[in-house]
Every structure is written in C-alpha cells, then in structure tokens.
Design a protein that fits this description.
Largest sheet: 8 strands, mixed
Bound molecules: 4-amino-1,4-dioxobutan-2-aminium adenosine-5'-monophosphate, magnesium ion
Helix content: 25-40%
Structural class: alpha+beta
Strand order of the largest sheet: 6-10-11-16-15-14-13-12
Length: 476
C-alpha cells in the first residue's frame, strides 16, 4: 500500500526532483524577509524539521501566512527541491498552505525556545512538541523495540505478568492497595467503634467483603510470576509497569515505572551477569547506531560527552566485585562519606558514585550482598551470610539493574521466609516451584526509565516518562 500521507522523516529522505509533496505538522518558527517567507514544520517523526519557502506568494497565500505563528498546525503543499540553505538537504517550495488549528501567540505556552524542565513538567501534555521531549519519546519507543529484539533473538518468551497481586515480591511493604471498599465506610466503622467504647482498630476492615476477598496490591515486580513461567518455557521476560509507594523524592525514583525482568532456567549467577552486561551494551549500541540524530542532540545540548562515554562502556568490561571487597574499598575512604560505610549497610548513592566513578571508573557488578539487606528469594551462599545477588551500578546514576540467582532449595527458601516474618501460605504456589521439578535459575530487573536516563543523559527521571507519578505528583 502506498503511503498517502508521508511523514516528514520520509519526505526528508526523498530525492528532491521537484515532485509534489504535502507536509503536515506543527510550526516551529516562521521567518519573513522582503518577498520570502520560511516556515519550519515539525511532525515529531524525526528530530529535524522541514522548511517550506514561499517566494512572492499570492495575496491569498500571504493572508494565510500572516496568521501563522509558533505552534499552529498546518498542511503545506509544494515542490520538493534541493535546499540552498546550509544544514538541510531539501526544502519545499510552497504552492499552497492551510491552517488546520490555531495556537494564539498570547496564550500558547511554548513560545520561546529554552523553557526550563520544571516549567515543561507543568505542561506535560504539550512538552512532547519540543526538541527534547520529542527526542525522549522516540528513544523510549526505540529502546522498547531494542529490548524485545534482544530477547526474541535469544529464544525468550514475552510473558504478561499481572499488575494486581496479593504478594509482595520485594518484601519492602511499599505497595499501593487496590480496593473497592469505601474509605468513608471504613472511617465510619472506626468512628462507631470508638463511640461504642471499643478500640477503633477493633473495627478492623473485613477484606472478605473486598473485591478480591482479600487484600490486594499493585505489583512492585513481575518476578515471582515470571519465575513460574521460566520453569516451564525456560527463558522469559516481562516488560511492564510496576508500582512503588516509597516516599522517595529523588531524580531517580518514580512511583510508577516500567521494568524489564528476564528470568532464565538453568542460569547461575555468572550466566546472569554475562547476559545482563551483554544486554546493556546491546541497548547502548542500538541507541548509537539507530538513533544517531537524537543521540547527537542529547550529546550536544543535554549532556556533553555522552556519546564518547557510552562508546567506552560498550568496549570495556564491567568490573565484577563482591560486596565484601567493595566495602573494604569504601572503608579505606570513610572520611569521604556522610554515611560511614560498614559491612552490612545498604549502599548509599554517595557510595555507588564513589565506586563507579572513582575506584573502578566504569560500570560495576556488585555481587554476594549480606542476606539481611536483600529479598527473601535470593540464593543463600554456603557462608550462610551472603546471597547470590547482583546489582549493576553505572557512573552518574548508580543502580540500574537488580537481580540474583534464586533459591531453588525448598527447605532453605522456607527458612528465609520464616526468618523474614513473611507468611508461608501466601507463597504456596511459589514454593511449589521448589517442590516440583526445581532447577537452578536466575534473573534480574532493569528499570526502564533508569536506562533512559543513562542513554539520553537526561538529569531527572520525571522527564523520561510521559506522565510521571511520584509523591504528591499525579497530574494529567
Ligand atoms: O532492585 P529492584 O527492586 O529488583 C526487583 O524488583 C527484582 N524483583 C528484579 C528481578 O530480579 N527480577 O528493582 C530493579 C530495578 C532497579 O535496579 C532500578 O533500575 C529500578 O528497577 N527501580 C526503579 N526505577 C524507578 N523508580 C523506582 N522507584 C525504582 N525502584 C527500582
Ligand atoms: Mg535494587
């Protein structure tokens, strides 16, 4: 089927032989000289805009051109010719122009060029029309495609894990409750209990009356369900939204973010590290090769030196270090840190920064963490103190991947669940995997927005997802 409404990206790649084309998009700028008007039109299909030039326009066209301001949507027809201007191969010699939708200059908010990111966040429904957010939108799409391609080429099955769940995968209790119970009724029951001289907590909510007949939450991770599928079809990955009610107001945390979670039967921790490292390098190479125009923009306008840094990452090995070794390094430089490092502590971002940027100068895979600071499902080492965890930390950002080999031994897993005060009954189906045909297996989670921060050099995670959700922030 012939494409009847070519995108600007397609028009820009045509050979300019005077053929008639129609350009549809939003006006970025208009410039007039004596008998000439230039209109830059962008449709977001690629970074570049196309220029339409009107030479000695008729009175009718001139009347329309007069009304064109930044943000107006237009349809312009003309001949595609080589451009005399530098920086663009082709342009359109306009023969007709139609305004599709006005954007009054006194109220359209995207007039000037360099709006702050903070301001643009308040108009998230319009910011995609800027250079930066158009580029971010295309990178999100391209990186999603790259992720699917990587796994599909390696025999992984894409599995859709549920978003509503009764179990807390990470055991951190940072979940959003899903309920159809009426908060007003809950409050009234507590109030009545108080009035009748009973403790308000005796008016305990009966989740038997709730939609699912028990407490349910939005998932923090698709891992547990992904494991069940890996133990049937060997290699799987999930790629979907996850939700965390952690009160982290940082440039690296969202309450709703997307995560990629591969899970591989028969993989040990070493295999897990190998594939995770190959995965990150593959995604960077994809960005550099297939998104060159947008990457050039990020490199020149958002994060100078970005491309060189990323290229270096793809051609060098990640450092592989145990938690215990890393802690020794950090303790040697204790005076550098606000939070003094000690064996058993969770890494603070100042520690991650120091390890990746100063000690190793490249991405670091940290393994074998103390079991106390990791989730229940990680495989216990023979020392009884550490688990086969692996986090990947990258310079400038910190943790980008968290993963592990999974505990495949029933008894050990039950012990961990008990130690952590979790309810064994809640995990009966997860424990079944260890009862029936258990195998060694491993997996990890890559935060999609963290990946985008890394690849684009953008500074705030709220600017790499269309509509960010964070504490006190769920606009639009
Ligand atoms: O380290 P996390 O919590 O690991 C898991 O959820 C495992 N179940 C993954 C697995 O083994 N299948 O999260 C994984 C990654 C982090 O490394 C980080 O990149 C990202 O998810 N992440 C967040 N991204 C944005 N906002 C948040 N609040 C995030 N929390 C984690
Ligand atoms: Mg983690």
């Amino acid at each position: 089927m012939a494409v009847e409404k070519p995108l600007i990206k397609e028009i820009l790649s045509q050979k300019p032989e005077g053929q008639e084309v129609t350009v549809r998009g939003w006006v970025r700028t208009k410039r007039d000289t004596k008998n000439l008007s230039f209109v830059q039109v962008n449709d977001g299909s690629c970074f570049a805009s196309i220029q339409a030039a009107f030479d000695n326009p008729s009175a009718g066209i001139e009347a329309v051109l007069k009304k064109i301001t930044t943000g107006v949507s237009v349809s312009i027809t003309g001949k595609l010719v080589p451009s005399p201007a530098s920086g663009q191969a082709v342009e359109v010699q306009g023969t007709s122009v139609e305004i599709l939708g006005d954007a009054p200059a006194d109220s359209y908010p995207l007039q000037k060029k360099n709006h702050s990111m903070e301001f643009l966040r308040t108009i998230a429904h319009l910011r995609v029309r800027t250079n930066t957010f158009g580029a971010v939108a295309r990178m999100r799409s391209q990186m999603s495609f790259a992720i699917h391609t990587f796994f599909q080429e390696k025999g992984f099955q894409y599995v859709h894990t549920p978003l509503i769940t009764a179990s807390d995968c990470e055991g951190a209790g940072e979940m959003f409750r899903v309920t159809t119970l009426d908060p007003q009724e809950i409050a009234e029951a507590a109030y009545k209990a108080g009035r009748d001289g009973r403790a308000p907590e005796d008016a305990a909510v009966d989740y038997g009356d709730d939609f699912f007949g028990k407490p349910a939450n939005l998932t923090v991770s698709g891992q547990l369900e992904a494991e069940t599928y890996a133990l049937g079809v060997s290699r799987v990955y999930t790629f979907g939204p996850t939700f965390r009610a952690e009160n982290s107001n940082t440039t690296r945390h969202l309450a709703e973010f997307w995560m990629i979670e591969p899970e591989m039967a028969f993989f040990r921790l070493e295999d897990n590290m190998d594939i995770a490292e190959a995965f990150i390098k593959y995604l960077i190479n994809w960005a550099l090769e297939k998104c060159a125009e947008d990457m050039a923009f990020f490199d020149s306008r958002i994060h100078p030196g970005l491309i060189e840094t990323l290229k270096k990452v793809t051609s060098s090995d990640f450092a592989r270090v145990t938690y215990t070794e890393a802690m020794k390094e950090l303790e040697k430089h204790a005076e550098r840190f606000e939070f003094k490092p000690y064996w058993g502590c969770d890494l603070q971002s100042e520690h991650e920064k120091f390890l990746t940027e100063e000690i190793y100068g490249r991405p670091v895979i940290l393994t074998d963490y103390p079991k106390e600071i990791k989730a229940f499902y990680m495989k216990l080492n023979d020392d009884g103190k550490t688990v086969r965890a692996m986090d990947i930390l990258v310079p400038g950002l910190g943790e980008i991947i968290g993963g592990s080999e999974r505990e495949e031994n029933l008894e050990r897993l039950e012990n961990r669940i008990k130690e952590l005060g979790l309810n064994k009954e809640d995990y009966w189906w997860y424990l079944d995997l260890r009862r029936f045909g258990s195998v060694p297996h491993s997996g990890f989670g890559l935060g999609f927005e963290r990946l985008l921060l890394y690849v684009t050099g953008m500074a705030n995670i709220r600017d790499v997802i269309p509509y960010p959700r964070a504490p006190k922030l769920a606009d639009f």
